[in-house]
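WARN retry 2 of 3 for item q-0093 after timeout on previous attempt; input resubmitted unchanged.
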Amino acid sequence: MSDLSLRKTQLQSFDRLLTIMDELREQCPWDRKQTLESLRHLTIEETFELSDAILENNLEEIKKELGDILLHIVFYAKIGSEKEAFDIGTVIDSLCEKLIRRHPHIYGDTVAKDEETVKQNWEKIKLSEKGNTSVLGGVPKSLPALIKAMRIQEKARGVGFDWEEKHQVWEKVEEEMQEFKAEFNTLEGQEIDKTKATGEFGDLLFSLINYARFIDINPEEALERTNLKFIKRFQYLENAAKSAGRKIEDMSLAEMDIYWEEAKKL
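OK item q-0093 returned
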């Protein structure tokens, strides 16, 4: 299929989706009842389902979840058109204009020879567009803390506020580790200052996220992969214990560790 034929087919598919959305909004009791607010938590759930499919590298599920998210986008645009605020056309046009504006190295005279320069230009243009008084003003308040830390650091880097060398970042990690240990490793029986320890632990996590970013590791993805690995091994432990006629809660840690070591070899 030629590029022209493919584009025509894609546009036909999109037109079909818009037609179905119109019909559902008019005829389906559930779809007719939905609002921007009622769809919000469902959209968040669909986004996490897409994230799961990507981590599992399940292309068929990725296709399915992308469809679900596209449905939500079209749904929001339909509601926006009913409010005479925006429609799918103005949403797309606004996006196209933003992409052109934020890629002056493609659609203008700006020179950007590497990815880092592109990112810095993006953040500077974004800051001027939104009229924020702070570089960090565009970071959503409701972002999960780990992702928020990543975005804060990326935005600060976008205006040149960042470490220069990898070893400097690691030295900061070690410094924060020592400060956390100083609050946590108290004498036996001595009460821990939980407020201070919590603060130092937050500083330590922030510095580790910073180091991960510096060596091009996504800490959110890394932690989620470890979560999935732990779940897989723990469920092996549960199943192995059950097969042996044992209850996991009645086993010693040493006994459980035997199955855990087996799981690590899978």
